[in-house]
Amino acid sequence: TLVSRTVTGKPARIIRNKWSEAFAEAGLEPLPMPFQPMVAMPVLAAAAAVKRKDIAPGFAGQGMGLIHKVRPAAEVMADLVKSAESSLGRANIYL
């Protein structure tokens, strides 16, 4: 991922793609908000319309940078259940 202003004109975490790479290679500075979306959105909407996932922006959110490994869904669910059981067990004193 990278933090880029190439889609909205404001810093946003996006998944690296051909759009962000082309912008970087061109050495262009994104326009400020609201002008950059006026340039970017028609191109990115056309990319989405023809299912060009290699171009369409993938907003990743700030938490994306905190992911360091992909865990199996079963492991994530087991941790979730364990945490819920622990929390609900402590909630008994309030009932």
Summarize the structure.
The chain is mainly α and 95 residues long. It contains 3 helices and 2 strands; from the N terminus they run E-E-H-H-H. The chain has helices at residues 18-26, 35-49, 73-91, and strands at 2-4, 12-14.
Topology:
Layout: E1 2-4, E2 12-14, H1 18-26, H2 35-49, H3 73-91
Antiparallel strand pairs: 1-2
Radius of gyration: 20 Å
Structural class: mainly alpha
Helix fraction by DSSP (H/I, runs of at least 4): 40-55%
Fraction of residues in β-strands: 5-15%
Question: How many H/I helical runs?
Answer: 3
Coarse shape: elongated
**How far is the N terminus from the C terminus?**
45 Å
Any low-confidence stretches, pLDDT <50, length ≥5? none
Notable traits:
95 residues, mainly alpha, two-stranded antiparallel ribbon, elongated
Protein model, in words:
The protein contains three helices and two strands. The chain is mostly helical and 95 residues long. It has one domain. The chain has a two-stranded antiparallel ribbon with strand order 1-2. Strand 1 and strand 2 form a beta hairpin. The termini are far apart. The model has no long low-confidence stretch (mean pLDDT 88).
